[in-house]
Structure formats: C-alpha cells, structure tokens
Amino acid sequence: MSAQLRALRGATTASANTAAAISEAVSDLVAALMQRNDLSAEQLLSVTFSVTADLDACFPAAIARRLPGWDGVALLDCQQMAVRGDLQRCIRLLAHAWLAVDQVPQHPYLREATGLRPDRAS
Q1: Band of residue 116 on the pLDDT scale cut at 50, 70, 90
Q2: Is the pTM of this model over 0.85?
Q3: Residue 11, SS3?
Q4: What angle do CA 12, 84, 27 make, to 5 degrees?
Q5: What domains lie within the chain, and their CATH numbers?
Q6: How far apart are CA 13 and CA 55, in angstroms?
Q7: Arithmetic mean of pLDDT, 28-54
C-alpha cells in the first residue's frame, strides 16, 4: 500500500494548570489522534504541541515522549500566540504522519476545544 506524508491537527483543553491535568489532556488527545487515524508510532514523523500562556506546569512533549514507540518521533513544544479572547488552557497539536493515500485524515478536537472546529468535533 502506498503512503503519503500528511499533516494532522487537533486540540483539547486542560482542566487546570497542573502537571496531572495537562498530562490527562495530552494523553486523551494523543490517544484520539492515534485511534481515529489508525496510527502506529512508526508512522509518526513529528508532533508539535502548542499551549496557551496560562499552561506552564509541564511540557506536553515530555508526556508524549513516554509513550511506547515514541522515542523516534521528533517532538517540540511552543507557546501559542496570545490573542485576546482565545480559548483558555488550550493544547493544540500538529502531527506529521505517513497515511495510506486513500485514507481520510481525522483531526480530533476534544473537550472545550470542540468550539474551535465544530465541523471536526465528535
């Protein structure tokens, strides 16, 4: 089967600015990304996490790095551009993965982040 490099987006929110809340949110987001796209870690090339300025208790990439098989995935954290009225405690991701040419990418938007992309919320 032929594969194509695709970009996948997603977002969620953390319930609080704590390592535990951020870890739970990142774990849920990554699990949804992997399940909805039928991905294995070997298919992932890179994942960039961005967080709003009100989340500084831990690094999302450090959470993802602990997942089985993710030691070969390039991971990066950055702070989301601050815009007045933006969704609070938001964690976004941009992943690059090899998908089958005929596979339709699924972009998970969870929790309060469903309002960012109602067309992609489930």
Answers
A1: confident
A2: yes
A3: strand
A4: 15
A5: 3-99 (3.30.1330.40)
A6: 10
A7: 97
